[in-house]
Amino acid sequence: xxxKKLKEIIGVFKESGLKKMEIxxxxxxxxxxxxxxxxxxxxxxxxxxxxVQTAPAEEKAPLADEAEIKDYNKYRDVKSPMVGIFYAAxxxxxxxxxxxxxxxxxxDTLCIIEAMKLMNDVVAEEDGEIVEICxxxxxxxxxxxxxxxxx
Length: 151
Description:
Layout: H1 3-16, E1 20-27, E2 30-37, H2 66-74, E3 76-79, E4 84-87, E5 103-104, E6 109-115, E7 118-123, E8 128-133, E9 140-141, E10 146-150
Antiparallel strand pairs: 1-2, 3-10, 4-6, 4-9, 5-8, 6-7, 8-10
């Protein structure tokens, strides 16, 4: 986990009003964890950052039914490119960018993620249909968290 990303995470934590936050990231078989806690009062102070190296995760047993594997591969996940606040619409009184059943084309805006007071569009990387919205409007999302499932 690089310093820029760590500073961004701490900034989002300070602005979010959360009392605790824990983020883990696996890179090359090593897992890094960051735990942040707010101090008493209104000032937020990050707890000591802990980096934990763990053994690579064990391989999961393959699914028994080949049809399940095919169905699972039909859906593509749209993941959050950053830590921030998920917004489904451009403004509170506007219609959401997409709903379940919406057809999207490559480059269409799916949502906005606010990180450090910057609004970042998340766009579709391919054509498809929204089959599930996995994040709640106004909720904090983590890097790599699934936001949408597209068929």
